[in-house]
């Protein structure tokens, strides 16, 4: 092979490689999210003027209200609350549980989650794509990890409130609650799909859907 041809081949390989490996990290110190911008990108565009407040959030310092149908509340500390997290690939949340409270089965499509128990005791678990349940009881000071994208849950079976701090390797992990996703979608998932999938009657499907309807 002529020298010029070899050079061209090497250049082509380098160009193809650069598409995969070049600049995997941020190219600036900060890129504070402009949450009001009309520009749509994978993330948020950077705003021109940043301040220290863009990197601050006090919203997970205190327990959240758990007087709802599931007895739990998730308070996110992600890029929508802390614009300075934009492009940094990390976020937090606080989850509070009333006695008997449940964080229902859900997934985070964009992140692995690690929880640190602040108070109380919880039964937690995740389910693999082979339908294997990994289940454990955890208490104050314990840490448990939920792999990215897998269905998982937390349940407070104790008689006192519980709380955890969750960490995610995404600035906006996303959450899909299984029941809400299927029974409260807009437009609704057809009854015959849910009836066949859950092996229940359409009357039961309608009853479950009514439980997720907005209260008048």
UniProtKB/TrEMBL annotation:
The keyword Manganese applies. Residues 58-206 form the Cupin type-1 domain. One of its GO terms (cellular component) is plasmodesma. SMART domains: Cupin_1 (SM00835). It catalyses: 2 superoxide + 2 H(+) = H2O2 + O2. Pfam families: Cupin_1. One of its GO terms (biological process) is plasmodesmata-mediated intercellular transport. Disulfide bonds join 31-46. Mn(2+) binds at residues 106, 108, 113, 152. It is found in: Secreted, Extracellular space, Apoplast. Transmembrane segments: none annotated. Residues 1-22 form the signal peptide. The keyword Iron does not apply. GO terms for molecular function: manganese ion binding; superoxide dismutase activity. Oxalate binds at residues 103, 108, 113. CDD domains: cupin_OxOx. Keywords: Apoplast, Disulfide bond, Manganese, Metal-binding, Secreted, Signal. May interact with bacterial adhesins thereby protecting the reproductive tissues from microbial attack. Has no oxalate oxidase activity. Belongs to the germin family. Monomer. In the absence of manganese, it forms tetrameric and pentameric forms which show superoxide dismutase activity. This is Germin-like protein. It comes from Perilla frutescens var. hirtella (Perilla citriodora).
């Amino acid at each position: 092979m002529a020298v010029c041809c070899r050079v061209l081949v090497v250049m082509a390989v380098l160009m193809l490689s650069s598409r995969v490996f070049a600049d995997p990290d941020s190219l600036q110190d900060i890129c504070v999210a402009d949450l009001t911008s009309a520009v749509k990108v994978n993330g948020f565009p950077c705003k021109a003027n940043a301040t220290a407040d863009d990197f601050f959030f006090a919203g997970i310092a205190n327990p959240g209200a758990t007087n709802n149908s599931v007895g739990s509340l998730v308070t996110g500390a992600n890029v929508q609350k802390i614009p300075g997290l934009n492009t940094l690939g990390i976020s937090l949340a606080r989850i509070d549980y009333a006695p008997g409270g449940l964080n229902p089965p859900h997934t985070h499509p964009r992140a692995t989650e690690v929880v640190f128990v602040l108070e109380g005791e919880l039964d937690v678990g995740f389910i693999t794509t082979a339908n294997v349940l990994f289940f454990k009881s955890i208490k104050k000071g314990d840490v448990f990890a939920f792999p990215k994208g897998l269905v998982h849950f937390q349940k407070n079976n104790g008689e006192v409130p519980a709380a955890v701090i969750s960490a995610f390797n995404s600035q906006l992990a996303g959450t899909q609650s299984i029941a809400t996703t299927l029974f409260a979608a807009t437009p609704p998932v057809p009854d015959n799909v849910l009836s066949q999938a859950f092996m229940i009657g359409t009357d039961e499907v309608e009853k479950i859907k009514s439980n997720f309807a907005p209260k008048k």
